[in-house]
Amino acid sequence: MTSAHDDMRLYEAEKPDDATMAAVASLDLNTGDPLLLCDADEVILHFLDPVDNWFEDQGLTRDRETARITGSLKEASTGRVLDQGEVTDALHHFFEFGMQTQPAVNGALEGLNHLADHAQIVILTKLPSRFRQTRLDHLSGLGFDYPVIASDAPKGVLAHRLSEMAGDPIVFIDDLPPNHVSVAEHVPHSHRIQFVADPVINKIMPTLDVTHYRAQSWADICDEAMRVLKAGV
To answer: Where, residue-wise, is CATH 3.40.50.1000 in the chain?
Structure first.
């Protein structure tokens, strides 16, 4: 998921920056093997609970019944709603100093390790590229030893480039509908699975027609991904 959830355009760039494209170029992918692109926040890492706890430690508060951060993040002492620039700063502060507080989602590591026997895995996470190494280090510390591509550009653009470096099928796992729309536009032959780890947000997050399957657990994800990978289309 993007790190700002349904206000994902908070820091969306038009295209990937040079650092991101260099990271993509460095990947050792096989054009003959399937590719699985997996989001990080609220897919393999819990995000909303850790970031809300981080905000509270910074004297901020947010309505936990919504995925929105912009418009709901306030100063706890005054109730003043932070403007977009302040929200961006608060999120970037979390990415830099608080990312290590994000625990793995139940079943995610085991699930990806199982799927890695059948497809090439790339973690495609939506956050500014300067935080890529921080995320890579954190994921590695949790046992996720997979390449990480971090960018605030539309996911479909990167998914398209990555799909050119691998074989079919292409499986895409993400929590946010706009990311599914972006990947459907740029990689229409991909198989798109939606999963939202946060139980509150899972109840209110919509599923669009461009999504092929809505999973409720990593067991669901593995079953659906394996069905597609075994079919080979």
So the answer is: 5-47+103-231
Long-range contacts (CB closer than 8 Å, 24 or more residues apart) made by 99-102? 99/131, 99/134, 99/135, 99/138, 100/138, 100/141, 101/50, 101/53, 101/54, 102/41, 102/45, 102/46, 102/47, 102/50, 102/138
3-state helix/strand/coil string of 174-222: ECCHHHHHHHHHHCCCCEEEECCCCHHHHHHCCCCCCCCEECCCHHHHH
Quick one: fold of 5-47+103-231? Rossmann fold (3.40.50)
**pLDDT tens track for 68-106:** 888 889 999 999 999 999 999 999 999 999 999 999 999
Cα distances from 18 to residues 15, 25, 29, 161, in angstroms, run: 10, 10, 19, 14
Mean pLDDT of the region 118-146: 97
Task: Give φ, ψ of 100 to 5 degrees.
Answer: -70, -10
